[in-house]
Design goal:
The complex is a heterodimer of chains A (785) and B (534). Chain A is built from 21 helices and 29 strands. Chain A is an alpha+beta fold. Classes of the chains: A alpha+beta (785), B mainly alpha (534). At the A-B interface, helix 9, helix 20, strand 3, strand 27 and strand 29 of A face helix 3, helix 4, helix 5 and strand 3 of B. Chain A: InterPro entries: TFIID_NTD2, TFIID_NTD2_sf, WD40/YVTN_repeat-like_dom_sf, WD40_PAC1, WD40_repeat_CS, WD40_repeat_dom_sf, WD40_rpt.
Chain lengths: 785, 534
């Protein structure tokens, strides 16, 4: 490779291109190239090519179809003049780009690709691995040398070009060249794209590229890049003329023929695999945060309308979200009879307690639709039993009580405090921040993947890697199931029911039934905070979801359908229905009275890792390993919103009780806050240093609490402005605060408090109806084997 | 193919998972899995393969391992959903199972297999090299197969049942403030500037002691914090001062006592305070004054009071017992006097129950016969000043206090067996007690006369400390005499003559002469209690 470097070879810059290639129409392309290389003195390249031809010859046979197709794609640039040597090809490619920039519509692009003509000898030259190195080095130098205002929008194009070059090299069997290329250029990209880079680095053989899903997505889909108009024309200018941003001291060697071939290689990728979303806005409007949302292999992440051809494909998540219309995010209207009954009970209680205010609270404490929100009508809801029960009334009454006794949290007040040590700051902090009660499990052997508290905080359940669930009474009451030796006709009245209860019991109970680690447990919400829950759901690696009765302490139903591990299960806010998320890339809706699922929500490209119901249970949010979150219409089963922007799989989600925000935590260690109505990202919250396991909103939706593997519980101000914490004086207004690809290692400004624990990863955080925060985790003994 | 892959995973995959997870993902690896290993396995299976095949297979094996294990791949998913950060063998097993590959039985995360490295066989290097150049150079790894003595296992091994899972609950935060309880980790120290900048996010009270610890010597406690914390704060003051030097243990016995009763912060404060006060040296004057200032002004030291007083008392006794002639003893006593006065000045301390313990060191210093000559005067003056402050503050609650002290002082003054030093101290003490005490003791009680007679009989009037003391004591009786009419007493005027006589009678000749020599009629009259007559 070094010998082939043009700066060392005298032949590189001097000879006129016309006379360089005497063999024009030779049938064996390899021979042509070899002769060409020999003539130019590229001994090392010649040898490498010889080796490569030997190595690839067997594989060529096995994948002949791909080779032909790929060949056509790679040679798009040279389509119109197959016989002319290198320099002229550049002129042609400039034509192509000019055409591209002039017309700028996908249809014409397709035509361009389709208009590829016959294949000449020359294009074999394009396989030379060195031109990739050169091309990428030049591109990088150009991007880094560009003006400050353009650099952030140019940087995102480096990554797709890098990936394609690497995949190209691997596909052609240049393993060593690919590894050299990777080690040479990946460090500069590692900050923003480490996960994909690492994944690419594991692909070493052409067959891997053929079989690997990510690689295929790169090859078959367009990579979206957003760019301003002026930035785009600069890029086109560089690709065609090679002007601007040359590395200092590079001399003629780079702008010579070698450099041109390198640029041609870049242009091939640009033409075939990149798609530019050219905006008319100024370049400074493309901020560091938005590149995450608008850059990437988006077309498959966005659900495409059925029957859409490639012309009408959606490439912009915002366009998709917009096309789906408004959502009904308001609270559920209350059943009229239930309302009057609840009011009656409240009035009675008011008489007993001599507190005349109680009865008026129902109207006040019921959530009202926020301005701009549409409340769903009764008809929109999932079918429910027509009549309400006593437990429903109890639940509503206790909800009113909870609302009255609630501790109100106002984290936004904290931002006004100047002196953090003053007494009034302490007072504000007390008002703004919650009290957090931490439950710590000890002596857990294999690990507890999940933990949850019932809404009335009488019960705690944890699922264990050893396939069982353990239930604890937090009040110290005995948990008693039913005896197994009774006949149902003996049960006539409550007294006889009590008789068949077990005599003995303890405050903890083991529920055995699963045959794999239990990944999620959930108490049913039907009784609210009025009474202990009656049922528990659990999801496990064995592919089943199980319903447990807490009266009998036994497994009642096993819901089968997912063939793969079920990662998450959540009850709908009104009970009866529940949703599961599985490794089989679907989320499913179930009801407790049927063993088969009611709806399947399919569309994610990776595991569905978590689900979360909207508080009015009309919508279901799913988070996936394909780095996106989606919002589904529960009844229709269609995707209505897609949230793109995370740079890693989504590990946990929460929807605010007012129905407006979705918070998602990703493996990129950030928490994103999304506006569900518009599908836009409001802000990105950074601060956690390892995986985030759980998120919860306070009852007023003003505070977000997160817990994670870094042994901390963190509180975030939902309403506060995000962004990096320490701002350079005055410079922060400049628009481009952060450079592209630079991870924010420090905490963002809306992190209002951090509470460390002692070696306890927090696996669950939740708020009680009265705004007490409960967190749970497993203590990790410091000895590690 | 698949079967072979699983075999490779057995070898490499498991050795990976026992290490910590997530290696830095940016490193490129040109072959974790070497072609040589493929060849070894092939040899083991009795197949011969060529180099290119081995290389290609190695690449493929590596890819398959990544597919099973790596970041965002199967085993990692199971690890994430298991809410762990360490990958276990069960994760690999689950990953293999969902990939439709038979899991590897016999491996548990509790009992990871240990891999041993076998050194290359070097017995006959030449022959081995000739036969197979590769196998000689490459080391072989194998799973250790531990041999168990069945007898021993049956006899000795007791299988302990694991303790069941249990839970505890504690407050991680109360209204946004993390309580300092054992269940919560100690607050992380931060730099002062940083702590100030990030204070809204730090944990309220928890951050306070840290902030002020670094805040310099005279950091004021934040208002509204509890007293225990403020004392921690000031422990920090001492800590700052002494941190650089190794603290010499002082009076280990009393320190031991302290440690059993007091909170850790107060113990720390006590040891830091005492060690920065004593032993005195010229260099750490600032440290000493900082410690005294802390003692004088800080709240929350009440619990330490008995120990401090005891420490002062023992210090004084210790210094005086050794004869107290050296310069160092003088300095020690000086510091201790300062400490007493600081304790008395502290508004937040409730000293009264300890007055009976505080007075002996004070009076001992005052009346001791032989203080170090260099310090004796200053020591006695400061002791008398302290005594005076003590009496003015507390004589209202203990009316009998001043008379009792006066009696002690008078005894020391008049009884002939006492040394000069004691007497001087007694006079200073009387000055400290007040004007009336001076009049009663020195003038009417005949202290001056006795002293004067002694002087005359001894050496005819050589001025020294004692005389000065007496004179200044007498001065107390009429402090403002210099400015106004400064007429001398004239022995010719009868009224003056009477005064002179009376002076001679009351003070004795020696001191009468001294007074008359000053030529101040008003003073003389005042001594006799007659100023209002003139």
């Amino acid at each position: 490779m070094q010998a082939a470097n043009p700066s060392h070879s005298p032949a590189a810059s001097s000879p006129p291109p016309q006379e360089s290639d005497p063999f024009q129409n030779v049938s064996a392309p390899e021979r042509t190239v070899l002769e060409y290389l020999r003539a130019r003195g590229y001994k090392a390249a010649e040898k490498a090519l010889l080796d490569a031809i030997e190595a690839t010859s067997e594989e060529e046979k096995t994948k002949a179809t791909i080779a032909a197709e790929e060949m056509v794609k790679t040679l798009a640039v040279f389509s119109q003049s197959p016989s002319r040597p290198g320099e002229n090809a550049l002129n042609d490619s400039s034509n192509v780009v000019q055409e591209l920039s002039a017309i700028n519509s996908p249809a014409s692009l397709q035509n361009l690709v389709a208009s590829i003509g016959t294949v000449g000898a020359e294009e074999i030259l394009s396989q030379d691995p060195t031109d990739k190195q050169e091309g990428f080095r030049e591109l990088e130098a150009w991007v880094e040398g560009s003006l400050d205002m353009y650099r952030p929008e140019f940087r995102p194009i480096l990554f797709p070009i890098f990936c394609h070059f690497y995949l190209d090299l691997i596909q052609r069997g240049y393993k060593d060249a690919a590894l050299r290329f990777f080690s040479g250029f990946s460090p500069s990209l590692a900050a923003a794209h480490s996960k994909i880079l690492h994944h690419l680095s594991t692909l070493l053989l052409p067959s891997h590229v053929q079989n690997d899903e990510h690689a295929q997505r790169f090859l078959n889909e367009k990579y979206m890049v957003r760019m301003s108009r002026s930035g785009f024309s600069l890029l086109v200018g560089w690709l065609t003329e090679g002007v601007g941003g040359e590395a200092l001291g590079s001399g003629l060697g780079f702008s010579g023929e070698k450099g041109k071939r390198g640029r041609a290689a870049v242009m091939r990728v640009v033409n075939n695999h990149l798609r530019f979303d050219v905006t008319s806005s100024k370049s400074s409007a493309i901020l560091s945060t938005t590149w995450e949302e608008t850059t990437g292999l988006l077309s498959s992440l966005i659900p495409q309308p059925s029957g859409s051809s490639s012309v009408t494909k959606l490439y912009d998540p915002r366009a998709f979200n917009l096309s789906k219309g408004d959502l009904k995010l308001g609270p559920v209207p209350m059943n009229e009879e239930l309302r009057s009954e609840t009011e009656r009970v409240l009035r009675e209680q008011a008489m007993v307690e001599r507190d005349p205010n109680v009865q008026y609270d129902l109207a006040l404490t019921r959530p009202q639709p926020l301005p701009g929100q549409t409340a769903p009508s009764e008809a929109d809801l999932l079918p429910r039993p027509p009549n309400f029960k006593t437990i429903d009334v109890d639940r509503e009454v206790s909800a009113v009580r909870d609302a009255r006794r609630r501790i109100r949290l106002e984290p936004s007040a904290l931002t006004n405090v100047i002196d953090p040590n003053s007494p009034q700051a302490n007072a504000v902090r007390a008002r703004a921040l919650p009290s957090i009660c931490a439950y710590t499990l000890h002596d857990v052997v294999e690990g507890a993947p999940c933990l949850t508290f019932s809404q009335d905080t009488t019960l705690m359940a944890a699922g264990f890697a050893e396939s069982y669930i353990r239930l604890w009474s937090l009040k110290g009451e005995k948990l008693r199931g039913m005896r197994s030796d009774f006949s149902s006709n003996q049960v006539r009245d409550p007294a006889s029911l009590r008789r068949i209860k077990e005599k003995k019991g303890s405050t903890t109970r083991k529920l055995i039934g699963h045959s794999g680690p239990v990944y999620s447990v959930a108490f049913d919400p039907l009784s609210g905070s009025a009474a202990p829950p009656k049922h528990l759901l659990s999801a496990s690696a064995d592919g089943t979801t199980r319903l447990w009765s807490l009266d009998t302490m036994t497994n009642v139903v096993a819901f089968r359908g997912h063939e793969n591990p079920v990662w998450d299960v959540k009850w709908s806010p009104m009970g009866i229905y529940f949703a599961t998320a599985s490794r089989d890339r679907t989320a499913r809706l179930w009801s407790t009275d049927r063993t088969s699922c009611l709806r399947i929500y399919a569309g994610h490209l990776g595991d569905v890792d978590c689900v979360q119901f909207h508080p009015n249970s009309l919508y279901l949010a799913t988070g996936s390993s394909d780095w996106t979150a989606r919002l589904w219409d529960v009844q229709r089963g269609s995707c209505v919103r897609v949230f793109i922007g995370h740079q890693g799989g989504i590990s946990s989600m929460a929807i605010s009780p007012d129905g407006r925000y979705l918070a998602s935590a990703g493996e990129d260690l950030t928490i994103s806050l999304w506006d569900i109505g518009s599908g836009k990202r409001i802000k990105k919250m950074t601060g956690h240093s390892t995986s985030i396991y759980s998120l919860a909103f306070s009852q007023e939706s003003s505070l977000l609490v997160s817990g994670g593997a870094d042994w901390t519980v963190r509180c975030w101000d939902v309403k506060g402005a995000g962004g990096p914490k320490t701002r350079e004086n005055g410079a922060s207004d400049g628009g481009v605060v952060q450079k592209y690809g630079e991870g924010t290692s420090n905490e963002s400004a809306d992190l209002v408090a951090t509470f460390p624990t002692k070696r306890t990863p927090i696996i669950n955080v939740q708020f009680t109806p009265r705004n007490l925060c409960l967190v749970g985790g497993v203590y990790q003994a410091s000895e590690t084997r | 193919m698949i079967a072979r892959v699983t075999h490779f995973v057995t070898v490499t995959g498991l050795s990976m998972n026992t290490n910590a997870k997530r290696k830095p993902t940016t490193t490129t690896h040109t072959g974790v899995y070497k072609a040589d290993s493929i060849k070894d396995v092939a040899e083991f299976l009795g197949i011969g393969i060529s180099d290119p095949v081995a290389t290609a297979l190695a690449s493929d094996v590596e890819y398959r391992i990544h597919q099973v294990v790596e970041v965002s791949q199967e085993a990692a998913k199971f690890m994430h959903h298991g809410r762990r950060t360490i990958m276990t063998t069960s994760d690999i097993d689950h990953a293999l199972r969902v990939l439709n590959i038979e899991p590897l039985y016999g491996h548990t995360s509790n009992n990871p297999p240990t891999f041993r490295r076998a050194p290359p066989f070097m017995a006959h290097p030449s022959t081995v090299n000739a036969a197979n150049p590769n196998s000689a150079s490459s080391t072989v790894y194998f799973v250790e197969d531990e041999e168990l003595d069945f007898e021993r296992v049956l006899r000795e091994e007791k299988i302990a049942l694991p303790k069941g899972v249990s839970w505890t609950a504690h407050w991680l935060a109360v209204e946004g403030v993390q309580p300092l309880i054992p269940e919560n980790p100690p607050a992380i120290p931060r730099d002062t500037g940083e702590a100030h900048a990030e204070a809204p996010t730090t944990n309220g009270t928890a951050a306070v002691p840290i902030t002020t610890t670094h805040g310099g010597l005279f950091a004021q406690p934040a208002p509204g914090t509890i007293s225990a914390l403020t004392s921690t704060t000031h422990a920090g003051v001492g800590a700052n001062a002494v941190a650089k030097k190794s603290t010499q243990p002082l009076q280990p016995q009393s320190q031991n006592l302290v440690k059993q009763v007091l909170s850790r912060e107060l113990q720390l404060y006590y040891s830091r305070l005492t060690s920065s006060l004593l032993p005195p040296s010229a260099s750490d004057w600032t440290k000493r004054s900082a410690a005294l200032a802390s003692l004088r002004n800080d709240a929350g030291l009440q619990a330490l009071l008995p120990y401090l007083i005891r420490w002062v008392g023992e210090g004084v006794v210790g210094a005086l017992k050794e004869g107290a002639q050296s310069d160092n003893d003088g300095k020690v006593l000086e510091v201790l006097m300062d400490a007493i006065s600081a304790i008395l000045e502290n508004q937040t301390l409730f000293v009264e129950p300890y007055l009976h313990q505080l007075l002996p060191p004070l009076l001992s210093t005052l009346l001791h016969s032989s203080l170090p000559p260099s310090h004796s005067t200053s020591l006695r003056t400061s002791a008398s000043q302290t005594l005076s402050r003590l009496l003015t503050t507390h004589s209202t609650t203990y009316p009998s206090l001043s008379p009792r002290i006066m009696k002690t002082l008078l005894l020391a003054l008049i009884s002939p067996s006492k040394s000069k030093g004691s007497r001087e101290g007694a006079v200073w003490g009387l000055v400290g007690v007040g004007k009336e005490a001076v009049r009663k003791g020195v003038v009417e009680g005949g202290g001056a006369r006795v002293l004067g007679d002694e002087y005359i009989s001894k050496d005819g009037g050589q001025q020294d400390g004692l005389v000065k003391a007496v004179l200044s004591a007498l001065r107390v009786l009429h402090p403002t005499s210099e400015t106004d009419m400064n007429d001398a007493l004239d022995p010719d005027i009868p009224s003056d003559k009477a005064v002179i006589d009376e002076l001679n009678e009351v003070l004795g000749r020696y001191f009468a002469d001294q007074v008359l020599r000053a030529g101040d009629a008003a003073w003389a009259r005042a001594i006799l209690g007659k100023e209002e007559d003139v």
